[in-house]
Structure formats: structure tokens, C-alpha cells
Design goal:
mainly alpha; AhpD-like; 9 helices; 0% strand; globular
Length: 180
């Protein structure tokens, strides 16, 4: 499966989503590893099997085994961290912010790829998962590393496109079921 196959499964109402998916493939504002690792991490975060299969297949030829593993690790570790730190941030009980998280997060310190790439992927996953505390943390690290606001915005734009493709696919499937 590929991005083109995914686009073909989206209903007529999702023309903008198809166009946005196409624009991701031609975007040159990120390195190849940044772009395709971002696509993998965000696809996994959608939790939609069709989107995951299509986008991982699209990305696989462009990523080393280490980069593929790191992208999967970014989705996984942020899945954990986003729940925990979103709770800490949203809870009105400030005591939780003083308590140690007691979560293993070694992969963040040693992801197996360039730290900037991993942080970019983690930021995008955090945007999908809606963790403001994690978004702020990753964005600050990226900016200190010299990453431009445009690159950060591109990562979040990709996250939004990939998430919306999962939603559009599910709506398309409902449309097909209703027609039967």
C-alpha cells in the first residue's frame, strides 16, 4: 500500500486531504530522514491500521532500520509521556508536578538517530496527542538546536494532515457501509 492507495480510498468530500497528502511527498523543507520518520511516527499515532500500513510502506525505502526504529520509538514513548504529562499539566492539584514521573524514557536521550530528528518527531506526536507540556518542551529543545519556526510548523502540519487522513478514511468507510 502507498500514499496513492490511501488517497484513492478517501471519499469525494476529502479532496483537500488528498491534496495535502500529495504535498507532503513533495515537501523539501525537511531532510529525507526527518520527513519520512515524521510520517512513520505520526501514522502510528493515528492508530488507524490502513494509514499505518500505507505510510510506513511509503517511508520504508527512505529510512534506515535505525531511523525506522527511532520513529516507532518516538510514537511509543510519546504515547506514554503525553498521557502522563497532559495529566500533570491539566490537574488542578499542583502536587503532581513535584512528584517524579518514574517512567523509563532512555530512548529520548539515546534515540539512535540525530537528536533533532527525534525531537521533531516527538513534537509532532505530542501535537496529535494534545499534550501542551510536551509540545512546549520539544519545541524549546528544537529552537535551542537552531531548528527554524518553519520546520517546526512543517512537522505539525504533517501531523495534522496524517491525523486528518485517518479521520477521512474512517468517514469514507462509513459512507461505503451506508451505501450498501
Amino acid at each position: 500500500m502507498s500514499i496513492d492507495t490511501l488517497k484513492s480510498r478517501l471519499g469525494d468530500f476529502a479532496k483537500d486531504i488528498r491534496l495535502n497528502l500529495s504535498s507532503m511527498a513533495t515537501d523539501e523543507s525537511l531532510s529525507t530522514q526527518q520527513k519520512y520518520g515524521l510520517i512513520v511516527a505520526c501514522a502510528i499515532t493515528t492508530r488507524n491500521d490502513t494509514v499505518k500500513k500505507a505510510l510506513i510502506a511509503e517511508a520504508a525505502p527512505h529510512l534506515s532500520a535505525e531511523a525506522m526504529s527511532a520513529a516507532k520509538a518516538a510514537a511509543s514513548i510519546m504515547g506514554m509521556n503525553n498521557v502522563y504529562y497532559r495529566f500533570v499539566h491539566l490537574s488542578s492539584n499542583e502536587q503532581y508536578s513535584t512528584m517524579p514521573a518514574k517512567l523509563r524514557m532512555n530512548v529520548i536521550g539515546k534515540p539512535g538517530v540525530d537528536k533533532v530528528d527525534f525531537e521533531l518527531w516527538s513534537l509532532a506526536v505530542s501535537a496529535i496527542n494534545g499534550c501542551g507540556m510536551c509540545i512546549d518542551s520539544h519545541e524549546a529543545i528544537l529552537r535551542r538546536a537552531g531548528v527554524t519556526a518553519e520546520m517546526v510548523q512543517t512537522a505539525v502540519r504533517f501531523a495534522s494532515i496524517i491525523q486528518s487522513s485517518a479521520i477521512a478514511l474512517e468517514a469514507s468507510e462509513l459512507e461505503l457501509e451506508a451505501a450498501e
